[in-house]
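ligand=pyridoxal-5'-phosphate
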Amino acid sequence: MRREIVHAGSGQLRYMIREIVEFARHVQELGREIVWENIGDPVRKGEAPPQWMKDVVRELAAEDLAYAYSDTPGEMETRRFLAARANERLAGITGPTVDTDDIVFFNGLGDAVNKVYGLLRPQARIIGPSPAYSTHSSAEAAHSGYEHLTYRLDPERGWLPDLEEIERTVRYNPSIAGILIINPDNPTGVVYPPEILEGFVEIARRYDLFLICDETYAHIVYGGATETHLNQVIGDVPGMAMRSISKEVPWPGARCGWIEVYNRTSDPQFATYIESIVASKRLEVCSTTLPQQAIPRIMGDQRYEDYLAARNAQYEARAREASEAFAGTSGVRLHTPQGGFFATAAFDELPPDGEIPIDDPAIRHLVEEKVADADPDARFVYYLLGATGICVVPLSGFCCDVPGFRMTLLENDDATRRWTFNRIAAAVAEYRRSSGATAQAVSDQEIATSGVAG
Ligand SMILES: Cc1ncc(COP(=O)(O)O)c(C=O)c1O
């Protein structure tokens, strides 16, 4: 090329959740059946949206205006509905009133994330959690041209952050303009108690930052955790919540998400920044119309609350199953998730040379080639895939230096899901037993589980 055409941040665009799929496909071609535990799509994992929701969509599809463009920020009736719901969350609480103009639709949060980071000055950085959800971390890194800036979620404290550490980082790094919170979190499944969220707000207020809170899983909270939304704690600090119908309805294929902006006019720079996001959407005309039209009809339906409650009870039971499966496995800890679709296991001790027996020589060869330069947790993940067909995502793919892996709570077939949890736990024991470094720590009982798991 006559000119350099590659953006400085292009190397930062990594999405391990999908990258692992390429390798899994090779293993599949060699005859291994794959259990896809890498991606958070409940529908692909067998959860059918209820018939009454499908009827809503069918009826909309018979209306001409479902095929039209919508207003740039989104359908007015839907924004009115969502603004009213945001304001209802403030009953008895002082917080920012949301107006229809404060709601802006995107083609899924993936689209929103690209614009929210892409329209910041490259020198203005957003610090986000580690482990990091790749859509955010890659977009932030690509926008700045540097590695994503992170604060640590601590597996020893149930994946809660250390607010004092965050404060210190913010104090000594003047390029930080905002803080990203994901609540409930992907991948850890942690749900922040209100005092942690208030701590984030306090830091933002003190250092004149804005907040982004990804609330994709805001209504998927269980196990006794408190559902707290950003607008209930943000007070007068500028910020935005990101919300979507992908997981909650669930309708990930709709590509429909939105931001809710709080205290837009409290800071002139923040107001201009939000206006630039809307202007950028305007250049694309608008986001998908029909899913937006479906939102008031689905979320306003009297069956919706019961539907969410039943789903949450189901995820709570699955989260318990996952922790029970790992309870007797040494060297790894799995904090029981309380929100969202994922469970994350963190290794206390991961041998660099562990292996899991792979019966098929061609698959073994493929795995051995792949692990040559892999991160330690990725090495475990490739062996797990080759030996069992279970495809999880290594934590090193989430900007994280704690070795571990993420699996889902989504498998709808009870027997397959229980087998999967038990088989992964047994694989951890096999892997650690295979290495001189950790073999002594693995009890016979842990290995016996692998026989049961098959
Ligand atoms: C925390 C979080 N934010 C955003 C997204 C993207 O959602 P969407 O389907 O709306 O693009 C996901 C998808 O898994 C997610 O887990």
